[in-house]
Amino acid sequence: MSSPDVAVIGSGPGGYRAAVLAALRGLKVVIVERQTWGGTCLNRGCVPKKAWYHSACVMDDAARFGERGLSGTLGADFPRAWQHQRRVVETVRGSYVDYLGRLGIRMLEGDARFEGPQTLRVNDQLLQARNIVIATGSQPWLPAPLQRVPQCVLTTDDLFDHPPPPGRRVALLGSGFVGTEMAFILSRLGLEVIWLTGREPLSSSAFSAPARAALREALAQAGVRPRLHSRIAAVGTGDAGVTLTLADGERIVVDWVLAGTGRRPRTDGLDLARAGVALGAEGHVRVDEYNRAAPGIYAIGDVANPGMSANHALADAAVAVSDMLEPGRRRRADEQVPQVLYSALELARVGLNEDQAEALEFEPAAGFASFDFNPAALAAGERGGFLRLLADLDSGRALGAEIAGRGAGELISLLGLEFGTPQALSRLAAAAYNHPARAEEILNAVETLAARWGMAAQVFAPSPLAAGRE
């Protein structure tokens, strides 16, 4: 085949996005996938999880149907929920593959490895490309003494790839995003979840203490409580199920175990050294601020970005393709990439938190708005959500935002459009909002900043939105 302008290794959200962006800009593109088109996010991550999350929220709301004048009961059937997510995944994957074909992107199935700086071997053929994008994602990591055992000790990859094992008593391990999401989701889909964590859920995340406290309360109201300081000393499997022995000697018998204990970059078999590509201490490909790993080679998403989310992969792809076309034009800005958690309380954030802002010598001021009396939230029967905006007291620069409540993942995208622009607060203050809607609390939070911290001059300065109407 003729040499492409761009060769992408991996078809997850980052690889897919890089291939599409490059093709839309007139470049000849080849994309290589060794497993399933769409990668982890589409097949065993974001997409199927979101299908389950919606069902979990419906089941959670069902407990309050009576007060809304609705009668009847709902029951959860986890095997059927598994079949539903599979149908969703197959629908999305079909659209995904069709779009790649319509853009003229050549799709190759097989293992890719470097033969040199600009040369890949894919199965039995050599492929030379002016630009190569490494988007191989990540793979589950299990700490000792855990090992994958079919139908007994599973990773989330296993759970989404294969119908669930029999039995409804499940031990869930992990205090990060995956553990915190799956604890709520599985408990609402009819499983008895024993959630074992070493520390407080999300304690290593950038979410604020108030957000984590609100999440703990929402989880408790849903009957989901982590067992803190639970360290696994031994694992045994047999006809009776799985026996977990904790460090204090306690034994817990369950039908199966789901390990949400983290992921590691997937670089095995790539022969990166042949291309002059180096790895960092945590196993990520080393890249610069333009996602360059070596001349003509880029690395994006989980394999290079410690954020390890689909959102980071998508943002990285845009940076890499921009650099191919106009070197140095667009830098990586991880702080502008939203982070979203789907659990008993949906959490979302973008930008800096207070600690990060102070470390950069900003003086953060907070604007707060509650969803407790928001008409849209009340109409949906929701309480306990809020929105916080951070700004620098001296300059009026918008620093960060955090949202707790249903739809937080959608609202954070609106705020993300403004963060990084000098007029973010004035643009948010000048915008028109639908009523009733949760988005109105954006304006309330901005106005709180102005009133509480004496920032009216910065917040209500003429913005480009207002100026365009004059």
Description:
It is a single chain. By secondary structure, this protein is α/β, with parallel strands linked by helices. It folds into three domains: 205 residues, FAD/NAD(P)-binding domain (3-Layer(bba) Sandwich), CATH 3.50.50; 109 residues, FAD/NAD(P)-binding domain (3-Layer(bba) Sandwich); 122 residues, FAD/NAD-linked reductase, C-terminal dimerisation domain (Enolase-like, domain 1, 2-Layer Sandwich), CATH 3.30.390. It is 34% helix and 22% strand. The chain is built from 15 helices and 23 strands. Strands 3-2-1-7-18-17 form a six-stranded mixed β-sheet, covered by helices on one side. α6 links the parallel β10 and β11. α1 runs parallel beside α8. The longest helix is centred in the N-terminal third of the chain and has 25 residues. The N and C termini lie far apart (57 Å). The mean pLDDT is 94.
Oligomer: single chain
How far is it from the N-terminal to the C-terminal residue, by CA? Answer: 57 Å
At the first level of CATH, what is the class of the largest domain? Alpha Beta
Detail the poorly predicted runs: none
The counted number of beta strands is: 23
The total of helices stands at 15
Instruction: Write out the CATH superfamily name of the largest domain.
Output: FAD/NAD(P)-binding domain
Strand content: 15-25%
Question: In angstroms, what is the radius of gyration?
Answer: 24 Å
The helicity comes to 25-40%
**Largest sheet composition:** 6 strands, mixed
Average pLDDT across residues? 94
CATH architecture of the largest domain: 3-Layer(bba) Sandwich
**CATH fold title of the largest domain:** FAD/NAD(P)-binding domain
Number of domains: 3
